[in-house]
Design goal:
114 residues; 0% helix; 4-stranded antiparallel sheet
Length: 114
């Protein structure tokens, strides 16, 4: 079965960095459109960044210039590099895979606080 397993979340001070990873299994990873979403308490889940099978990327305005999405097809893994984090980035971050079907990971908590 398809599994998406996120890792790399945690508690970090404002201005610091984190790198999230999402390891995929059970699918032909290189053909999937991969995305990171996040959901903060009391808010709807929102798209943060996405990357196509060919490597084209797209970002939410709120993270442009601070977050970078990348993929390693040899490792079936998609990454989200986050710098200059602010308390507004606090959320559960979810990995999402889409082609004909779509799949979600279980999420990883990112908390930005001093």
């Amino acid at each position: 079965q398809v599994q998406l397993v996120e890792s790399g979340g945690g508690l970090v001070q404002p201005g610091r960095s984190l790198r999230l990873a999402c390891a995929a299994s059970g699918l032909t990873f290189e053909s999937y459109f991969m995305s990171w979403y996040r959901q903060a308490p009391g808010k709807e889940r929102e798209l943060v960044a996405s990357i196509s099978s060919l490597g084209s990327t797209n970002y939410a305005d709120s993270v442009k210039g601070r977050f970078t999405i990348s993929r390693d097809n040899a490792k079936n893994t998609v990454y989200l590099e986050m710098i200059s984090l602010t308390p507004e980035d606090t959320a559960v971050y979810y990995c999402h895979a889409r082609r004909i079907s779509w799949y979600w990971g279980q999420g990883t908590q990112v908390t930005v606080s001093s």
